[in-house]
Amino acid sequence: MLKHHNYALGLTWAIILFVVPLPFIQTLSVGLPADYSDEFQAIYFGAIAYAWMLVAIYLSTRPKWLDRLIGLPDMYVIHGIISIAAIYLIYLHQSETESMGWIKTTGNWAYWLLLGLLGYSLIFMAGWLTSRLTFLNTIKTWLEPLFKHEVSIWIHRLNLVATVLVFIHVILINYVTAIKPFMFWFYLYSAFALITYGWSTYQNWVGTTRASLTTNTEIADNVRELDIQPNTKLNLLPGDYVFISFPTMKGLKEGHPFSIVNSPTNSDTIKLAIRGDGDFTRSLAQVPTGSQVRITGGYGRYQQFLNERPEFSSLVIIAGGIGVVPLLSIISSHPDDRIHFFYTAHRKADLLYSEQLRQWQKRPNFKMSQQVGRFTDSEIIRQLPENWQTESLFLIGGPGKMMRHWKRVLYRHGASSGQMYSEEFNW
């Protein structure tokens, strides 16, 4: 049986790849003049590329309905892959068509701008790729002092300029603008992308929830705990993350995602535990209490994943390092559930919230295995609940390699992909 999450992700891919470009292809196939028959395929490539570019813009607005359905990490993977595919199709389009004047100029400008942005994004904006390719991660680490968080976001926004250039490129082609059904869909898609992006930008600067930073303390080496008090209640689920920014602080004005530690159902305060890995997170130590905070959320699928599978009777959580944070929120919000919690860190000092964990061990249905250094495969497999292949769900949090490893191990021992869920913070 297809599990809900896998089905939704596959359906999302199918709609983006095939359904979205279909009106362009269909109207072009009927309306293109026969004089351009040798360029039909290249023209189709260009139309598909433009459709995918607009989809990428829409996904960059982080639509919450789609996040709850497939998760923002998968959404960003789709965003990256279709952007790469669109650039490849633009290359094919450009190499197999002839044009002149401003039609050629705008097309060339868009292509070279997108190609430069692709190279930049593969290093700085595609964590799903750099986490798997060591040489790209090394280049990223080397260049990060020059290209900080805010700079990267503004460079990435040049994709909008490239899209406008493609828009101009199309409306300058007389034999294309003469195809009225195509232009209807062309303007409709373009307007939709423009309106959704504009509304998202407005919401991020005007409509986001205002909040105040009430505490900012160091709770472990290079880990800070922030307590944030929103002015209005946010729609948060356990295990969610939020995007926060500090509008009055230099270098911290663009939103950055962080997971909540506490149970949002039991408190109006949002508690975050943040490790100083980049320029944004390292700068948090300088933010004074009382500072204004902009906050957007929640995002995430940990709790949604559990809600979709009520037939499972126990929960196994595997956490490593700072990746434990959203899973602590889940544990806090499920006091009556059967939970087996595996938690590791590189050093004893990196094991967070020890006192809270000791309190949870008083629960009759809570079992914890904690140690410094990773668990072996057999250590976890032999401690799993009885009948775990059919009765347990698995939530995994930590470094990307660790999460992928435990998914492979569990799958080899009988778990299905629909029993396991993790979220990689890889952007």
Automatic annotation (TrEMBL):
All residue ranges annotated as the FAD-binding FR-type domain in the record: 206-305
GO-annotated molecular function: 2 iron, 2 sulfur cluster binding; flavin adenine dinucleotide binding; metal ion binding; oxidoreductase activity
Keyword Kinase listed: no
Q: PROSITE patterns, alphabetically? A: FAD_FR
The UniProt record lists the keyword rRNA-binding: no
Cofactors: FAD
Q: Which InterPro entries does the entry link to?
A: FAD-bd_8 (IPR013112), FAD-bd_FR_type (IPR017927), FNR_nucleotide-bd (IPR039261), MRET (IPR050415), Riboflavin_synthase-like_b-brl (IPR017938)
The lineage's top-level taxon is Bacteria
For this UniProt record, the keywords arranged alphabetically read as follows: 2Fe-2S, FAD, Flavoprotein, Iron, Iron-sulfur, Membrane, Metal-binding, Oxidoreductase, Transmembrane, Transmembrane helix
Transmembrane portions of the chain: 7-28, 40-59, 71-91, 111-130, 158-176, 182-200, 312-331
Q: Which PANTHER family match?
A: 1,2-PHENYLACETYL-COA EPOXIDASE, SUBUNIT E, NADH OXIDOREDUCTASE HCR
What is the protein named? Oxidoreductase NAD-binding domain protein
Native source organism of the sequence: Lentilactobacillus parafarraginis F0439
